[in-house]
Amino acid sequence: MVETKIDISELKSEGSDLIEELAEFLKEKTETEVETATNEIIVKDEEKTVSKKHLRVLLRKFLHQNELKDSFRVIGGKENTLTIKGKKIAEEE
Question: For a tag site, which of 6, 30, 44, 68 has the least CB within 10 Å?
Answer without folding.
Answer: 44
